[in-house]
């Protein structure tokens, strides 16, 4: 394992990512990690970039014990400046910030870090720079603007580079990271998803032991389904999945999830129909944030109550709560902010742990989303489910604008169903990141047959995005939109008009509420 120490750069997680592409396992921890408390010995250490200045009073610094491990060390950007600061304080603010592409000139091609790397484009993002060579180091690469673009210690395998090899704009960056991990650290290239399944099942069995029971909520989405399938593979029916039907799920969702999880995947699932309870609590509420809060709190309440009803046959207590936390959530919660760590509680089930005195089990916490999908496919979960669009926790409640009632939810979910069905038929589902229908709280005049109608409006949304932070609307063919609009108005009572949302994010958000 390679240890990545995170100094807070927006690119830090990409370092782990790139190494995994070469089947090398890496773990990221905050830069303040005490080496004596690590509990394992890394094969090598990478110190990431970061937004701070090493010479600032409150700047984060690495535990000097990293140098006692005797393993190769690579400092990237801030990580390199940290090396320089420790070895002679040769860091100052550059005259101008360097941001964007730059040309790398490799001075020493025989150095194992630069094997197979010639002069190429690298990505820079820094304000501070080295103003001299740190004590005991020599230069092995320069760039147009950085005379100390790559440095190495005269006798120890300690390297520093000013650019970011983890971003794809650094054309040879991946090779450099691999060179570091393989040539210098001799890290094993055996991290595969098949191995992961095997190791994770063993880990779960050891952790849970021969008798304890585990409970977990499923939503019908990819993360909770994959996590549940993995648990089932490990401990069979000692894993209890619960689907809470909150009355604002997609059309026929509870039945569909039951069929897929129970019949298809052999998961021990209980479906709780709490729709009346949720809809009663949502009565009269129009504020989006209030809707979210009510749904989140009611969910915790229902889940706790129903968990009480699940009494394992052998009188065992439920001891663990399964959560489908992914690696990006973990990174967010360990990220270094200021001189101390901030720990964020994940999602809306955080409260369950304290109230129910359960221990947490997170089998996906090492994985990125696309790795979870790959894992799902290996576990025999259908392509359709594995590539399903995300669906928000508050569900259709935030897609019925204004008050949420049973009849309004019914209109919204029927329109949504038709829309998604047509998207699938047109072969567009996998090209779109998320699509759904919203029911607007306005009435509009229409004419059907010889009758004047006065009914509501459906807004269709479809977006393309990689991270959901920014998004573009999907450019459907006009004929496609025409067909969907016609089907919705003809088949869904209560709708007189259909519109298509052509706003990107920003300035709009993906959801309408
Ligand atoms: P926005 O509307 O913020 O949506 O641009 C970005 C992504 O987040 C989803 N979303 C939610 N997911 N609970 C969730 O679990 C929520 O309250 C929530 N609000 C938005 C949205 O569907 C999109 O994928």
Describe, in short, the structure shown.
This protein is of the alpha/beta class and 513 residues long. It has helices at 12-21, 78-86, 173-184, 193-208, 222-235, 253-264, 275-282, 288-309, 327-334, 350-356, 369-378, 383-386, 406-425, 478-491; strands at 2-6, 26-30, 44-47, 73-76, 91-106, 120-130, 137-143, 150-153, 158-161, 213-217, 239-245, 269-273, 318-322, 336-337, 340-341, 359-361, 434-448, 451-464, 472-473, 495-500. It has a nine-stranded mixed β-sheet with strand order 2-1-3-4-9-8-7-5-6, with helices on both faces. A five-stranded parallel β-sheet has the order 12-11-10-13-16, sandwiched between helices.
Beta-sheet strand percentage? 15-25%
Flag low-confidence runs.
338-350
- Estimate the helix proportion, in percent: 25-40%
Widest sheet: strand order? 2-1-3-4-9-8-7-5-6
Number of strands: 20
End-to-end separation in angstroms reads 43 Å
The number of helical elements comes to 14
- State the secondary-structure class: alpha/beta
What do these coordinates show?
This protein has 513 residues and is of the alpha/beta class. Helix content is 32%, strand content 25%. It has 14 helices and 20 strands. The chain has helices at 12-21, 78-86, 173-184, 193-208, 222-235, 253-264, 275-282, 288-309, 327-334, 350-356, 369-378, 383-386, 406-425, 478-491; strands at 2-6, 26-30, 44-47, 73-76, 91-106, 120-130, 137-143, 150-153, 158-161, 213-217, 239-245, 269-273, 318-322, 336-337, 340-341, 359-361, 434-448, 451-464, 472-473, 495-500. A 9-stranded mixed sheet has the order 2-1-3-4-9-8-7-5-6, with helices on both faces. It has a 5-stranded parallel sheet with strand order 12-11-10-13-16, sandwiched between helices. A hairpin with a 6-residue loop joins strand 7 (137-143) and strand 8 (150-153). Helix 4 (193-208) packs across helix 5, helix 5 packs across helix 11 (369-378) and helix 13 packs antiparallel against helix 14. The chain is globular and about 85 Å long. It starts with a strand and ends in a 13-residue tail after the last strand. Residues 338-350 have low confidence and may be disordered. It binds xanthosine-5'-monophosphate.
């Amino acid at each position: 394992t390679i240890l990545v120490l995170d100094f807070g750069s927006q690119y830090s997680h990409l370092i782990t990512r790139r190494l995994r592409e070469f089947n090398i396992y890496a773990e990221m921890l905050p830069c303040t990690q005490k080496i004596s408390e690590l509990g394992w010995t890394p094969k090598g250490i990478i110190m990431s970039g970061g937004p701070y200045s090493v010479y600032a009073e409150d700047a984060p610094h690495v535990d000097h014990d990293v140098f006692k491990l005797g393993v190769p060390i690579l400092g990237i950007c801030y990580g390199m400046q940290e090396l320089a600061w420790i070895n002679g304080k040769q860091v100052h603010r550059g005259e101008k910030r360097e941001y964007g592409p730059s040309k790398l000139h490799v001075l020493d091609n025989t150095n194992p870090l630069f094997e197979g790397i010639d002069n190429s484009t690298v990505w820079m993002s820094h304000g501070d720079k080295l103003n001299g060579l740190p004590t005991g180091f020599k230069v092995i690469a320069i760039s147009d603007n950085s005379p100390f673009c790559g440095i190495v210690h005269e006798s120890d395998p300690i390297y520093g580079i000013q650019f970011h090899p983890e971003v794809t704009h650094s054309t040879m960056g991946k090779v450099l990271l691999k060179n570091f991990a393989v040539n210098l650290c001799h890290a094993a290239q055996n991290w595969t998803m098949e191995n992961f399944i095997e190791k994770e099942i063993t880990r779960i069995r050891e952790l849970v032991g021969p008798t304890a029971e585990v409970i977990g909520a499923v939503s019908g989405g990819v993360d909770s389904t994959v996590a549940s399938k993995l648990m089932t593979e490990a401990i069979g029916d000692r894993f209890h999945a619960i689907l809470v039907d909150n009355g604002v799920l997609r059309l026929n969702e509870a039945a569909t999830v039951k069929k897929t999880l129970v019949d298809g995947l052999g998961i021990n699932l209980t479906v709780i129909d709490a729709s009346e309870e949720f809809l009663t609590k949502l009565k009269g509420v129009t504020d989006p944030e209030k809707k979210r809060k009510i749904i989140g709190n009611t969910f915790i309440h229902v889940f706790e109550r129903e968990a009480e009803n699940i009494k394992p046959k052998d009188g065992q207590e439920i001891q663990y709560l399964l959560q489908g936390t992914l690696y990006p959530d973990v990174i967010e919660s360990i990220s270094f902010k200021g001189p101390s760590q901030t720990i964020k509680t994940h999602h809306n089930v955080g409260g369950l742990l304290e109230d129910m005195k359960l221990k947490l089990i997170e089998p996906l916490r090492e994985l990125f989303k696309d790795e979870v999908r790959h894992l799902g496919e290996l576990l025999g979960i259908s392509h359709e489910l594995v590539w399903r669009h995300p669906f928000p926790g508050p569900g259709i409640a935030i897609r019925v604008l204004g008050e949420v009632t049973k009849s309004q939810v019914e209109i919204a979910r029927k329109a949504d169903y038709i829309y998604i069905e047509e998207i699938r038929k047109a072969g567009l589902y996998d090209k779109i990141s998320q699509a759904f229908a919203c029911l607007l709280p306005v009435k509009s005049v229409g004419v059907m047959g010889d009758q004047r109608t006065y009914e509501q409006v459906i807004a269709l949304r479809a977006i393309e995005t990689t991270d959901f932070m920014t998004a573009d609307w999907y450019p459907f063919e006009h004929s496609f939109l025409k067909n969907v609009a016609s089907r919705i108005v003809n088949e869904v009572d209560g709708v007189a008009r259909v519109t298509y949302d052509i706003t990107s994010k920003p300035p709009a958000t993906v959801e309408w509420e």
